[in-house]
Design a protein that fits this description.
By secondary structure, the protein is of the alpha+beta class. It contains 15 helices and 24 strands. A hairpin with a 5-residue loop joins β4 and β5.
């Protein structure tokens, strides 16, 4: 590997396998696609930024690939027979980066933070909907009381939202919403520099001795420092890797996969994400998608297989349900339940009154064009979703005369369009390790991001019942009903593909992997540079 130019990047030196054998110049440079909109784990929203969260913050418990929960900052926990009380026994050897001790009082302060009005209403309404109070039993024991049993609560304790923040910095951070270097955690790395649009820099926490169960080693991280370069353009990231300017990249575009695979000095790793598939959600609050026939026609006008082949060149996994294939709640019965049927799409639109066409070939009714608008926030556009939208735009015009308009704007403008109901289609995927959290957010009548504006008492009942039980078989059965109703029955959701993450790296970089619960790139704790 080429030695990196200091003016561009940090220098790289080889290291051994143990922290004690590493040198001060044991640094890694990693190019990432997405700039975080926040460094506060409790306000985390971008799945692409998840790999950064657990560099700086630790959760109370960890979650394995099989769905089981393991110790982390909580050594153990007990749940009462009625499911209303969780008693956590905490580690007594943990310290926040600012020197503040981690204990039951700090965990209580973090939980109570979610009670602050407007702090994170989505989490307060879903993952912490049943949370009643947290009480300090002793310095390292905390009792949490719920108002009702909640099958999502342990998943919350394992999520980035449970990232423990120093109570001192919760009060003193200059910008709590954004976070940054002055919002500190207990994690294996300390965030010490963020240059907007350029880079994020972490240095090793030499005091770190409390990794989650299942970590590949104990003690401090192998790397002395990490620089994440913000390179949103896929070709630029790949070029930086192949030229030796960076050692790792995430977000490998389909067009560059063969290039990576053919380079003997590089390795490629990929993993499907958990949570929900990337799907289009139809806004039923106004025309044209208040008419189920038009929703179905839009879906039938798209040859998903052809679109995915064109955009992702065989690297994308087709989605059939709102729930991703990685989730244990995925309903495989939906596979093949619908296919592109152009004749059916046009028949449905004729029946819905969109019989006429204007000079450009678009359907019109009562002098109004059949227009569908999507307004997407640029911070959440990943995986060539802009190109995917363009391919779908071309298909629905050619196949059914639908005017699909896509605008990518800043987050503020996108939120205003959503708040003002100035959209017909909403694209979204969620990275929740428990898909139930996402389903509540997206489909419940009171869900914080229910962009369909569709109300179905049965769906709300199924979601509520599933959330109240820890019986996984019962939850799977209930969530299957939700998927059948929203995808096949009412046609509120049009699934497209299952998001995946890709990591490409020089062979000298070892220990790279994916979070077992989410399928997203894991933190850099176990990463090392081999000699």
């Amino acid at each position: 590997m080429k030695r990196l130019i200091p003016a561009l990047l940090l220098a790289v030196a080889a290291c051994g396998a143990q922290p004690a054998q590493t040198s001060p110049s044991n640094a890694l440079t990693w190019a990432v696609e997405t700039q975080p909109i926040t460094f506060n784990p409790q306000l985390w929203a971008q799945n692409k930024a998840r790999l950064l969260v657990f560099n700086q913050f630790d959760a109370l418990v960890s979650k394995a690939e099989d769905g089981s929960f393991r110790p982390w900052l909580a050594k153990s926990w007990k749940v009462s027979g009625d499911g209303l009380t969780y008693t956590l026994d905490l580690r007594d050897d943990v310290t926040f980066h600012d020197g503040t001790p981690f204990d039951a009082a700090s965990v209580k302060a973090n939980l109570d933070q979610f009670r602050v009005s407007g702090y994170n209403p989505a989490v307060a309404a879903i993952q912490l909907r049943a949370f009643d109070k947290a009480e300090v039993v002793s310095r390292y024991q905390l009792k949490i009381t719920l108002r009702e049993p909640d099958g999502l609560f342990l998943d919350f304790l394992a999520s980035p939202y449970s990232g423990q923040v120093s109570p001192k910095s919760l009060k003193s951070a200059k910008n709590l919403k954004f976070g940054g270097p002055d919002l500190v955690g207990t994690g294996p790395f300390i965030l010490d520099r963020f240059v907007q649009g350029q880079e994020i820099h972490y240095r090793r926490n030499l005091a770190y001795t409390w990794p989650p169960a299942g970590a590949a080693h104990q003690g401090p991280a192998y790397l002395s420092e990490i620089t994440y370069r913000l390179l949103p353009e896929a070709a630029v990231r790949v070029g930086a890797l192949t030229s030796g300017q960076v050692q790792v990249i995430e977000g490998v575009p389909a067009t560059e996969v063969d290039l990576i695979k053919k380079d003997s000095d590089l390795v490629l790793k990929t993993s499907l994400n958990s949570g929900t598939a990337y799907s289009y959600y139809f806004n039923t609050s106004h025309a044209p998608f208040d008419d189920k026939r038009v929703r179905e026609a839009f879906r039938e006008a798209v040859d998903v297989e052809a679109v995915l082949r064109s955009v992702y060149q065989g690297t994308a996994t087709r989605a059939w349900s709102i729930v991703g294939k990685r989730s244990p709640f995925y309903d495989a019965a939906l596979e093949g339940a619908y296919t592109a049927d152009l004749a059916k799409a046009n028949t449905l639109l004729d029946a819905a009154g969109w019989k006429q066409h204007d000079a450009e070939g678009y359907r019109v009714k009562d002098g109004k064009r059949l227009t569908v608008r999507e307004v997407a926030a640029s911070a959440f556009v990943r995986d060539r979703r802009d190109i995917l939208a363009q391919a779908i735009q071309a298909q629905v015009k050619q196949n059914a005369g639908i005017d699909f308009q896509v605008k990518i704007v800043d987050q503020g403008a996108a939120q205003k369009a959503l708040d003002d109901d100035q959209y017909e289609l909403f694209g979204n995927s969620r990275g929740d390790s428990d898909a139930g959290a996402a389903l509540n957010l997206l489909l419940s009548e009171r869900g914080a991001i229910n962009r369909t504006h569709f109300s179905d008492p049965e769906v709300d009942k199924w979601l509520a019942t599933a959330s109240a039980t820890t019986d996984q078989a019962e939850r799977k059965e209930l969530y299957a009903k939700v998927q059948q109703s929203t995808v096949a029955g009412n046609i509120l959701v049009f699934p497209l593909y299952v998001p995946a993450d890709q990591i490409a790296a020089h062979r000298s970089v070892q220990g790279l992997g994916f979070d077992p619960a989410s399928g997203t790139p894991a933190s850099a704790y176990d990463v090392r540079i081999a000699t």
